[in-house]
Amino acid sequence: RRPAPSMHRGSLVRTALTRVGSLSSARTLRPPPSRPPSAMAMSAATFGTAAADGVPYGFSSSFDSGNGELVSATRHTLTVRMREEPFTKADGRAHFQWFHFRVTGARGRALRVVVQNAGDASYPDGWRDYKAFASADRKHWRRVQTTTYVDGELIIDMDPTPGDCVHLAYFVPYDYERHLDLVAAASSHPNVSHVALGDTLDGRPLDCLRFGEPGWWTPEPAFAGSLPEDEAAVEAVAGSLPPWSRDGGAKRVVWILGRQHPGESMASWWMEGFVRRLLDAEDPVARKVLRRAVVYVVPNMNPDGSVRGHLRTNAAGANLNREWENPTPELSPEVLWTRNAMDATGPVDLMLDVHGDEAEPYCFIIGGEGCPGWDERRASTQRMFKAAYARACPDFQTTFPLEYGTAPAGNVVTAKTQVTYRYNCVGMTLEMPFKDNVQLAQPDGWTPARCEKLGAAA
Prior knowledge:
The chain is an alpha+beta fold. The chain has helices at residues 37-53, 176-187, 229-237, 266-279, 284-292, 303-308, 333-345, 376-392, 415-423, 448-457; strands at 7-9, 13-14, 19-21, 26-28, 58-60, 69-73, 77-81, 87-88, 93-94, 100-104, 111-115, 133-135, 142-143, 147-150, 153-158, 165-169, 192-199, 205-211, 216-217, 249-250, 252-258, 293-298, 350-357, 364-366, 426-433. Helix content is 25%, strand content 24%. Its cofactor is Zn(2+). One of its GO terms (biological process) is proteolysis.
């Protein structure tokens, strides 16, 4: 990791054509913390100790998104602990549940990995029926079907492998280099503008992609004078949105956010499917969307936490999805830069915040119910969006949860509630499973490929 400079200023939100706002704010940056000394010593010394004790394995989590500390090793069993994140004041605890580590010396050996502190993790109910991911080459991942959760320990029993190295992870990792590749590929498209909204506490840019140009749209010639029946019905319900009329209207402003919680790597895979479809010039749906809307995408809201191997927090230990009411440059600059950019782009019409759920075996949306100003217009628009999403991709469903809990009165600390309240629009949280969608279950459960298809369908 490159050392962070002592001070930074938030960059201006820039696009190719317009300056949408200034996000300048000075703050002290905190450098990435070193690995716990005991973990570093254990990781570095594994081979030497193993040689003396006759234990054949090497162990490491010192890489992008790595999390895991070796406790002990025998010829057939490795005992591992997940590393805690900084204490989170909003949640009253130090989170942990994400793991990603490498075992070497595994060729031809049956191996048991015991994650010792699984029962103390942030969401222990998530271990029920859970199966870990494993890969020999970091490209092809499979579920370890012989994963069990017993007496507070996650036990991963591995069959003998043909390779000498195996990576194990909570979900398939989506590393920072791949994120940069996606941003670069999108930015090279003539219809996409890139801006760094500001810098994170570790000094990484907070990347934002703008698809399309702000302004007005004009109807296609075939639609002059009338609208298709289904689109007219949409307008009848969403009456306060800019009108779709004979002369067109103001483009919708749509924001898509991903990975506020860094351990939910399925959000990055979803983003890849979503972004690549919007880039497809041969896709009539993508072309039509960009005729009528300008879409702002923040593919990874929490790159620091992603690289550090965190489940829920950024470099300072902030749960970003509890910072939307009062974000600060010292604790939650990622939210501050994004919210300021939303203010600068004009009223938001729709926001989707993409997440993963440790326990629930469904893809579902929770909206702004209960936030100040929630009304039937927004409820109806949200119902229509969900119904359309279910038609576009059957992996998304609308029957669970049967009833939404309402946010406490005045609670606008999450992205969906703050955006819904602040811009009088529809803000939603999309959740995907770590395990599987039980309504369309597959042997490998929920996978990156299914995330991408769900993203493309959005």
